[in-house]
Design a protein that fits this description.
0% strand
C-alpha cells in the first residue's frame, strides 16, 4: 500500500472509529434517559428526513468525487466542479423543503411532531454544505477527520450535560443536528481559507450535465433507502414509538458497524478508478484484496453478534424494556457482511467498470422486494419481521451483483 493511500485509510479509519465510538457512547445514555418511546420518536424523525437529505445529495457525492479525481491538479476545473455541485444541491434542497412542508401539513402523524421534524431537517442544509466528496477526491481525508470529529465530541459532551429527562428528547436531537451543521460550516471555511477554489457561476447546462451524471447514483441510493430507511418509517406508521425505539436500538449498532467498514471502499474507490485507467487487471487484483478483507472482517463480526447479542444488549441498554432487541440483533447479525460486500462490489467494480446502469436495476428490484414483504412482516411480526426482510434484501442484492459481474466476465482476483 503506497504512503498516500495508507495515510488516507488511516485518517478515514480514525474518522469511522470516532463516528462509531461516539454514537455507541450516546446510544446507551439516550435509550436509558429517554426511554424506548421517545428514542423511537427521534429515530422516526431522522429516518423520515433522510429521504430529503438523499434527494438533496442526488448522488452528487459520488459523481463529483469522480470528477475531482480527474481534475484535482487544475484549480479552475476544481472550482467548476465544486460550485456546480453546490448550486445543484441548493436547487434540490429548495425542492426538498417544499415537499417536506407539504408532507408536514398533509399528514396528521407528521403534523403532531412538527417541531421534532423541523429540527431533524437541519440535516438537509448540512448535506449541502459539507463537501466530503471534495476532500475524498483530493485524497485529503485528514481534513474530513478533524472537521467531523471535533463537533461530534462537543455533541457528546453537551448531550451528557443537558439531556437529563425523558422530556428532553427534542433537545437531544437539536444538539446532534447543530453538531453536524457546525462541521459543514467549518469545512466550507477551510476550503475558502486555503484558497483551494475560485468562484465560478455555473450555467444551466453545467447543472443539467451534473444532474445527468449523478442520476444513476441517485436512483441506486433512492432504491437503497426503500429497503433501509423506509423500514423505520413504515414501522413508525404501522406500529408504536416504543417498537420503533426497540428496533432502532439494534439498527443503530448494526448500521454503525456497516458505516465503520464503509471506510474501506470510500478510501479505495478513487484508487481503483486510477488503477482502472492504467490496467483493468491491476484494478481487479486490488478490488479482490479489498473484498477479501471486507468479507472476512464482517463475517467474524456477524458470528460475534450472533453469539454475544445478550451481552451487548445488557451492556448497551441494560433495562428489560430492550430485551426484544436481543432477538432483533441476532436476526440482523450478518447484515453487515452482505451490506459491506455489496458496497465493495457495487461501488468499486460496477461503477468503475461502467456498469452503474445495472446497479439501478438491482437496487430497484431489491426495493420492490423489500416493500412487498416489509408491511406484512410488520403487521405479523413487528420489528422481528423488519430485521429478517432487511437481511434477505441484502442477500438478493449479492446474488444479482454476482450475476451481473459474471455475465460481463469480470472476474474478481481473490
Amino acid at each position: 500500500m503506497d504512503p498516500i493511500l495508507r495515510k488516507n485509510f488511516s485518517y478515514l479509519f480514525l474518522l469511522q472509529n470516532i463516528n462509531y465510538i461516539i454514537p455507541l457512547l450516546l446510544l446507551p445514555y439516550l435509550t436509558r434517559v429517554l426511554g424506548a418511546d421517545n428514542f423511537g420518536k427521534i429515530a422516526f424523525a431522522q429516518a423520515f428526513v433522510a429521504y430529503f437529505s438523499m434527494l438533496t445529495d442526488f448522488g452528487f457525492g459520488t459523481s463529483a468525487m469522480q470528477e475531482i479525481v480527474k481534475v484535482r491538479k487544475d484549480k479552475e476545473a476544481l472550482s467548476r466542479v465544486y460550485w456546480t455541485t453546490t448550486f445543484a444541491k441548493l436547487l434540490f434542497a429548495s425542492a426538498s423543503l417544499v415537499l417536506f412542508l407539504l408532507f408536514l401539513l398533509g399528514i396528521p402523524k407528521l403534523g403532531q411532531m412538527y417541531m421534532l421534524l423541523l429540527i431533524a431537517f437541519v440535516a438537509v442544509p448540512s448535506s449541502v454544505l459539507f463537501p466530503i466528496w471534495f476532500f475524498q477526491g483530493l485524497e485529503k481525508m485528514s481534513y474530513v477527520t478533524w472537521l467531523s470529529s471535533i463537533p461530534k465530541i462537543l455533541v457528546l459532551i453537551f448531550t451528557f450535560l443537558l439531556v437529563r429527562e425523558k422530556s428532553d428528547f427534542t433537545l437531544a436531537l437539536l444538539i446532534q443536528v447543530v453538531g453536524t451543521f457546525l462541521s459543514s460550516i467549518l469545512a466550507v471555511l477551510l476550503i475558502f481559507k486555503q484558497k483551494a477554489i475560485i468562484f465560478y457561476l455555473p450555467s444551466r447546462e453545467d447543472i443539467k450535465s451534473d444532474i445527468t451524471e449523478s442520476w444513476h447514483f441517485f436512483a441506486s441510493g433512492f432504491a437503497t433507502n426503500i429497503y433501509t430507511t423506509t423500514n423505520t418509517v413504515l414501522l413508525g406508521f404501522f406500529s408504536t414509538d416504543a417498537v420503533v425505539g426497540i428496533f432502532s436500538a439494534s439498527e443503530k449498532i448494526i448500521r454503525a458497524i456497516i458505516a465503520l467498514f464503509y471506510s474501506v471502499y470510500q478510501v479505495t474507490f478513487p484508487r481503483i478508478n486510477a488503477y482502472y485507467h492504467e490496467s483493468k487487471g491491476q484494478a481487479l487484483v486490488f478490488a479482490g484484496k479489498v473484498l477479501k478483507v471486507t468479507a472476512i472482517s464482517t463475517f467474524l463480526t456477524g458470528i460475534f453478534l450472533l453469539a454475544a447479542a445478550p451481552l451487548v444488549v445488557k451492556i448497551m441498554f441494560g433495562v428489560p424494556q430492550y430485551n426484544e432487541t436481543i432477538v432483533i440483533m441476532r436476526l440482523s447479525s450478518f447484515l453487515p457482511f452482505f451490506a459491506n460486500c455489496n458496497a465493495v462490489l457495487a461501488v468499486n467494480l460496477l461503477f468503475t467498470f461502467g456498469l452503474k446502469r445495472y446497479l439501478t436495476r438491482i437496487v430497484g428490484a431489491a426495493g420492490i422486494f423489500s416493500i412487498l414483504l416489509v408491511v406484512p412482516a410488520i403487521l405479523f411480526f413487528q420489528a422481528r419481521g423488519v430485521a429478517v426482510v432487511a437481511t434477505l434484501t441484502e442477500v438478493l442484492i449479492s446474488v444479482l451483483l454476482l450475476y451481473v459481474l459474471k455475465k460481463h466476465r469480470i472476474k474478481i482476483m481473490l
